[in-house]
Amino acid sequence: MNNDFTFTIKSICLDENYHPADSTRITTNFANLARGESRQANLRNALKMIDNSFNALAHWDNPAADRYSVELEIVSVDMDIEGAGNAFPSIEVLKTNIIDNKTNERIEGIVGNNFSSYVRDYDFSVLLLNHNKDQPQFSIPDNFGELHGKLFKYFVNSNAYKQHFKKLPVICLSVSDNKTYYRTENQHPVLGVEYQPNESSLTEQYFKKMGLQVRYFMPPNSVAPLAFYFFGDLLNDYSNLELISTISTMETFQKVYRPEIYNANAVAGKCYQPNLKNLDHSITQIVYDRAERSQLAIEQGKFAEEHFIKPYQRVLEHWSANCAL
Question: Which end of the chain is more exposed for a tag (fewer CB within 10 A), N or C?
């Protein structure tokens, strides 16, 4: 049955003329920027922030801080369960490419960065909510995230992935506002100072089922740590420029969507608890609706339930039970 699962990978450029596809989750960072009257200015401003951040981190042999530009590709992965041509939009990620304006060289960056998944919306915004609706105490359903994790690992191990990408993905998220993070003595020239959380989060556990481990670093020029989810060895499997492309891209999104944390006016201390009610922060010149994002996540979860989970329930359960990943 494994052979019935086929992936189709498509990519388009994320620039100021980008318009989200009908199959794109509207809550995805880049799609959310590309909506409304300010869409073009939003995209232009965000892309400029990414370039500025990149050059600030890649400061060697870069006296005017203008040597590099970052080009972004939106990578969309459609999954055909039964080989009948009925593809479901399973995963969407970003791929970074680095342009060295001094040598005119184009350097491949990292795939992953932003992670978008309708099935994850179903797990968190439908399954988890329904499970806890009448419960006196919060709990997690049995096998929560198992199917999603196996589908992700199956994709990363697929020939389709290997034909398109040289390295395994790195996904970069914000820290959790209900955890405390402690600064360690470990420091990396690009990733910055490493932090460790006081306990594991549901997001960590969910991504662990996808085969990903996590480390928390606060890069130079940053005010809060970022969560880096990866396979293998984050510090040695990727070059400094590759890592900088992920940091500059994802921190820019976090400054827009989590300004209370990532655009705060005070730098995280030795013992750090993120606070989404922090008033001492700066706002970017980018317009978006955070409340709308939360509402849309439920709609997207229901879309996944209707078009993927329910129609293919038996096939998916059988596959998941027999999948050796």
Answer: N
Alpha-helical runs (H) found in the chain: 29-33, 39-57, 118-122, 128-131, 146-156, 159-164, 202-208, 234-237, 240-257, 259-262, 290-304, 313-322
SS3 letters across 162-193: HHHCCCCCEEEEECCCCCCEEEEEEEECCCEE
Q: pLDDT (tens digit, 9 = 90+) per residue, 9-30? A: 999 998 888 887 776 666 676 7
pLDDT of residue 1: 40
C-alpha span between 325 and 55 (Å, rounded): 39
> Closest Cα to residue 239, out of 63, 66, 114, 58?
58
Question: pTM of this prediction?
Answer: 0.93
Instruction: Decide: 76 and 8 in contact? Cβ < 8 Å.
Output: no
**Amino acid making up residue 283:** I
CA 261 – CA 68 distance, rounded (Å): 27
Residue 90 near residue 80, CB atoms below 8 Å: no
Structure confidence by residue, pLDDT tens digits, 59-79 = 999 999 999 999 999 999 999
